[in-house]
Amino acid sequence: MSEEFYDLVEDAQTEDVIEDESMTQTETQSQTQPSSHKDEAKPLLDEVTFVGSGNSKNPGGAKVWMCIYCNIQYTSSYSRIHMHFFGVTWGKKAEIRRCPAILADREKYIKLLKKMVSAISKAPPSYKAPSSEKARTVLLYECARDVEKDSSSIQDTWFTQGVSIVSDGWSNVKHEPLINVLVVNSRGVTFMYAKDFSGVEKIGQAISNYLLGAIEKIGPSHVLQVVTDNAANCKAAGKDIEKVYKHIFWSPCCVHTLNLIFKDFAEQFNWLENVYNRGKMVVKYFLNHSQALAIFRDNSNLEILKLASTRFASHYILLKRLKDCREALATTVVLNSWREWAKQGDENTKKWRTCCSNYTK
Ligand SMILES: [Zn+2]
User: Fold this and answer.
1) pLDDT, tens digit, for every residue of 282-292?
2) I need a labelling partner for 261 at 20 to 30 A (CA). Which of 87, 152, 226, 340 fits?
3) Ligand 1 centroid – CA 91 distance (Å)
4) The dihedral formed by the CA atoms of 53, 56, 59 and 65, expressed in degrees to the nearest 10
């Protein structure tokens, strides 16, 4: 969260004192919630139960509250309730313990985070959002440091458990060819970095040099294997790495291998290609004709899926979704609204439409 956001929610002139964490699970349910709970700029008030008003004479000052997740009681102002759930801004002192219940439950954490984001949209007009300059410098670095801090406990296990390096190439929205490096062990996957390979031919040697760099960075003795897809250049890179480090072995990506097997299957059966081509035609037709799509959408809860050939199993996904939508598609092409619309257009359009209608029946 930005400092501005802290300023927004901070109770002014509150020099509150955090009491020792009294682990008392006091019964507080009989206490009624103060009216300030409706305050949309302070959404976290719903996540705590107020036990008392504390020592502060200031109405906005420190209050005794209990977290509804961990049931631990504290005395503080609102800003520290925030710190309890989300931690402190970088460079500030942690004056309250992070909520152990929220730290242990990612789903609850994300739910709280979404609540905070929607609170920003309801913020009073006086709330000043961070400038783009600040967002891409100070705040971004702050986030990066937070991520580093959070992932350090996983990184510590790299050196005790060992890791696999997983690498894959993809293009970003600017069509820059990137190759990423992920580090995987039983504790989870960590993104290490990605490099832009624009203007560099992705031959085996270029890839192996890149991956050898990653191995050096982690420490060769902690790396057990390197996983890439099954393309010839990656295979060659894997062999190069195995030559340099005898204890590291290369494994082809299992999903990519399965995808290739299915591709081989498909090439063996002509009818399969035929079915796919017809399915693709139906999908393209609907997606290119907004009127047809509108009639279909009135009859279906599911959307027709767009083709994304770069995804694994895209052929299967396309056909599976068509099968799931079959009833809705069959209903669409016998509706009066469809027939009325089908009368319009030139001969070519009509021909395609009839073809499409026949396939969907
Ligand atoms: Zn808590």
Assistant:
1) 888 888 888 88
2) 226
3) 22
4) -30
Q: Using an 8 Å Cβ cutoff, are 7 and 32 in contact?
A: no
Contact 247, 286 (CB under 8 A): no
Please report, for the chain, the start and end positions of each structural domain, with discontinuous segments joined by +: 3-121, 156-252, 266-360
Determine the distance separating the centroid of ligand 1 and the alpha carbon of 101, expressed in angstroms.
Answer: 6
pTM of the model: 0.57
For residues 155 and 153, give the distance between their C-alpha atoms in angstroms, rounded to a whole number: 5
Distance from the alpha carbon of residue 94 to the mean position of ligand 1, in angstroms: 15
| pLDDT one-digit tens code per residue, 229-249 | 888 999 999 999 999 999 999
Domain 156-252 falls in which CATH fold? Nucleotidyltransferase; domain 5 (3.30.420)
Distance, CA of 215 to CA of 121 (rounded, Å): 44
- Total number of residues shown for the chain: 361
Instruction: Give the pLDDT of residue 58.
Output: 64
